[in-house]
Design brief:
Shape: globular
Order of helices and strands: EEEHHEEHEEEH
Number of helices: 4
Distance between the termini: 27 Å
Radius of gyration: 14 Å
Length: 119
Amino acid sequence: MTTIMISVLPDGMPVDKMESDDDGKSCPLPTQDEELNQENKDIAIAEYNYGPATTDEECGNCGMYNQTEDMLACIGDDSGDLGYCQLLKFSCMSESTCSEWVEGGPITSDLQEEYRDNL
């Protein structure tokens, strides 16, 4: 397996360390390593108040919440309840929030394609 790391995107968000399997599919390490995912989730809970939303108001998903087809395949979930936090690097629930939550999500396959087209 190959590991690739790029340090920072232009907007300051760290890029994930990726792991490629024998088929060439690349996934962020936390989606493939439960222990690393849990470590990152524990940090999100302790430092960024990750957990269930504290209000009854409906809101969209976070702008860092990745639910692209490729990411959902990495996570191994097709329920629509999970996504990947691009900032804090862990698989997270759609109805949870944290103090780093930003408007504009989720990141979908359409948005991902648009992003790649504008590189």
